[in-house]
Amino acid sequence: MLSEKIKDDILNNVLPKGVPLRQVELSKRYGVSRIPIRDSLLALKAEGWLVPHGKAGLMVPNLHWKEAEELYLMRSQLEVLLLSFAFDFIRQKDVTNAHKILVALEQDEITLIEKGNLNWLFHEILYLPADKQSIHKTVSCINQQVTRYIGFQYGPMGYKSQSQQDHYELLELIRLKKKSAALSLLKQHIEEAGEELTRFLKSID
User: Fold this and answer.
1) How far is C-alpha 170 from the chain's CA centre?
2) How far is it, in rounded angstroms, from Cα 12 to Cα 113?
3) Regions of the chain where pLDDT drops below 70
4) From CA 192, how far away is CA 187, in angstroms rounded?
5) Is 58 left (phi over 0), alpha (psi -120 to 50) or beta?
6) Span 58-98, pLDDT tens digits
């Protein structure tokens, strides 16, 4: 999918931040006409991956600790709320499917965007039983923006191991029906990841 390719190039700094994107150059790079390029860029703008530049242009925004801090603050509140609604409706098949996602995340050969998508899919499997569509849509949008920072977390921050450990522990608490402990762990998991990311971004600002 073209938009996924563009996202992966953004995460790997192939498409530089703060520089206007040229549809003609992107068309040559990805071997497609300008129409799918235009459509993909508009979709990425809607997801927060691109921001306006000048009168009609678009560019990859610089990543900033203030944005990261706010994104994780929203996640820590809304995702815990979703899990609290979903908890009593999570079935063994959901736990099994979530575990399969964690196994897939262990693969080193998958791309950064695939890691970001899998990370969200893991969480989403646990939230869907809540059947709270409006909250879920908001959380999904927030996670789309969070994925833009995954290059730091899975790269120089080396946070993957801790994140995976939390994920496996969360699944075990869900399996044991320990709701309070699971909600506490999820909140801690999101807050600590946000704090680590914010500190890292401040150090390179």
Assistant:
1) 18
2) 9
3) none
4) 8
5) beta
6) 999 888 999 999 999 999 999 999 999 999 999 999 999 99
